[in-house]
Amino acid sequence: MKRTILAIAAILAFCPVGLTQEEPKEPDAYELAEKETERLQRLLKLDDGQAFYVDSILQSNYIGLMESMKKLQKSRVSNSDIYMNERDAWMQKTYDAYKLVFTDEQWAAYLKSGGAREQKARDKRKAAMQAALSKTKKK
């Protein structure tokens, strides 16, 4: 997932900008999903059926994530923790869906390739947010 976020950031950073001050083109969820599916298919040796499911999961979740972020921006949310929490929720959905698609060996390889580290980081952020919430409720 961290690689996915880094891929999105890289795409945003290198979007070609015209001379007429046009807004940079937003990365296409379908393209991002296709690239990540290809990466996972190579890494985990997914069969065609698994690749189809992974691509469908990623397309759906990328679109949902982008829509959620746009809603937060339109609401003029300025707290970065809220954006991170929303991103983590969508990444958790993807993680949970992968569990259903991958075999035990593929799941182990996925965790070893960074999935476990990303899950640990999400859990740590979630625990920190809950601790902060409980601290404010005690006051």
Key traits:
139 residues, mainly alpha, single chain, flat
State the shape: flat
Which value, in Å, is the CA radius of gyration?
A: 17 Å
Please, how many helices?
A: 5
Percent range for helical residues? Answer: over 70%
Number of strands: 0
Overall average residue pLDDT: 84
Distance between the termini: 36 Å
Biggest sheet features: none
Q: Stretches where pLDDT falls below 50 for ≥5 residues?
A: none
Task: Please state roughly what percent of the residues sit in beta strands, choosing from under 5%, 5-15%, 15-25%, 25-35%, 35-45% or over 45%.
Answer: under 5%
Query: N-to-C SSE series?
Result: HHHHH
SSE layout and pairing:
Layout (H helix, E strand, L loop, with lengths): L1 H12 L15 H16 L3 H27 L5 H22 L2 H35 L1
Helix pairs in contact: 2-3, 3-4, 4-5
Can you give a write-up of this model?
The protein is mainly α and 139 residues long. It is built from five helices and no strands. It has helices at residues 2-13, 29-44, 48-74, 80-101, 104-138. Helix 3 (48-74) runs antiparallel to helix 4 (80-101). The model has no long low-confidence stretch (mean pLDDT 84).
